[in-house]
UniProtKB/TrEMBL annotation:
Annotated organism of origin: Megalodesulfovibrio gigas (strain ATCC 19364 / DSM 1382 / NCIMB 9332 / VKM B-1759) (Desulfovibrio gigas)
Statement: the UniProt record of this protein carries the keyword Manganese: no
Lineage of producing organism: Bacteria, Pseudomonadati, Thermodesulfobacteriota, Desulfovibrionia, Desulfovibrionales
Annotated protein name in UniProt: Putative glutamine transport system permease protein GlnP
Role, per record: Part of the binding-protein-dependent transport system for glutamine; probably responsible for the translocation of the substrate across the membrane.
GO cellular component, one term: ATP-binding cassette (ABC) transporter complex
Subcellular location per the Swiss-Prot or TrEMBL entry: Cell inner membrane; Cell membrane
Keyword annotations: Amino-acid transport, Cell membrane, Membrane, Transmembrane, Transmembrane helix, Transport
Length: 338
């Protein structure tokens, strides 16, 4: 469905196609300019090396731990079983899984560390693992941030001064400092204190992932609280008074009158906040979380392919944020038509 403000005058089909052609020309020109500039600095594009960072096949060797002779090579239920008899008479069995290749035969002499066979194992690449961690951190932060923001937004509108002042203090503290500083505080200050206290009583210590989630959720919760507050206050006061005059309690009025209307108005800004959160997760690399940006930096130090890797990193972020945007737009349409 094409959205229109209704303010622009109607244009002809030729006008539309001409500007579409100009857009395609500018896009193609930008790509060519980038390619030409890279050629001038003698940069060699190696896109063929990128797929291994998404999916790769590893050859796993089965090695002998004894010096001795191969006394049996038999086919078992789990693969090929190789029996090695050591010089002192000790026997050990090694299994090469089905589909693997056996490199020895009965009667061969082997030494400790020799490969008896190998098989292939398929693994997810570094970029997929990092993208999954980025999604995991973002999802947890969004869920916790929504709950925190909803409670804080309601407390911000409460007549109870303790609740209202607590909400205002939390919102202003969070919004008044950079997210990067908050991540440092959560990891190096709160993390150190909490881990030492838990260690003192013999309790398990949280991983850096949870301090990253806590910092992101607290940061998101403050902004969600202001979005919730603005959405609730946008509902006309007359509707609240009408609901109360019909005998509804404050909770019933909030549940049946205010929130259904407020949710429709806060969904678009919430979508922007969540998309920003996914991108802000790139800061978590400073606390040793191997999210997408940190994994990209590490790969660049080893393969010296900064152009390809940063483009791939940007595309993965684009895929995640675009999918999230489409999901929220679908939810918004479903909510509006319900």
């Amino acid at each position: 469905m094409q959205l229109s403000s209704g303010l622009s005058p109607r244009r002809s089909r030729l006008w539309y196609r001409a500007w579409a052609a100009i857009f395609i020309f500018m896009l193609a020109g930008s790509i060519f300019a980038l390619y030409y500039a890279a050629k001038q600095v003698d940069y060699v594009w190696r896109w063929y090396r990128i797929p291994q960072y998404f999916w790769y096949v590893e050859q796993v060797e089965t090695k002998s731990m004894l010096d001795g002779d191969v006394v049996a090579v038999e086919q078992g239920s789990g693969g090929t079983v190789i029996t090695v008899k050591g010089l002192d008479g000790e026997e050990e069995r090694y299994t090469v899984p089905g589909g693997g290749e056996v490199r020895v035969s009965r009667g061969d002499m082997v030494s400790s560390g020799d490969a008896l066979g190998f098989h292939e194992q398929q693994h997810l690449g570094v970029m997929v693992q990092a993208a999954w961690l980025t999604l995991e951190v973002s999802f947890l932060s969004i869920v916790i941030g929504i709950g925190l923001g909803l409670i804080t937004g309601l407390a911000r509108l409460s007549h109870n001064p303790a609740l209202r002042w607590t909400a205002i203090t939390y919102i202003e503290l969070i919004r008044g400092s950079p997210l990067l500083v908050q991540i440092y505080i959560w990891y190096f200050v709160f993390g150190t204190l909490i881990n030492q206290l838990l260690g003192k009583y013999g309790l398990p210590q949280p991983s850096p992932l949870w301090y990253g989630v806590a910092s992101m959720a607290m940061f998101t919760g403050a902004y969600v609280a202001e979005i919730v507050r603005a959405g609730i206050q946008s509902v006309h006061r007359g509707q609240v008074e009408a609901a109360r005059s019909l005998g509804m309690t404050s909770f019933e009025c909030l549940r049946h009158v205010v929130l259904p209307q407020a949710v429709r108005r806060i969904l678009p800004p919430l979508a922007g906040q969540f998309i920003s959160l996914v991108k802000d997760s790139s800061l978590l690399g400073i606390i040793a979380l191997r999210e997408l940006t940190k994994a990209t930096r590490e790969l660049i130090t080893s393969n010296l392919q900064p152009f390809e890797m940063w483009f791939v990193c940007a595309i993965l972020y684009l895929v995640m944020t675009f999918a999230l945007s489409m999901l929220l737009q679908w939810f918004e349409r479903k909510w509006l038509t319900s």
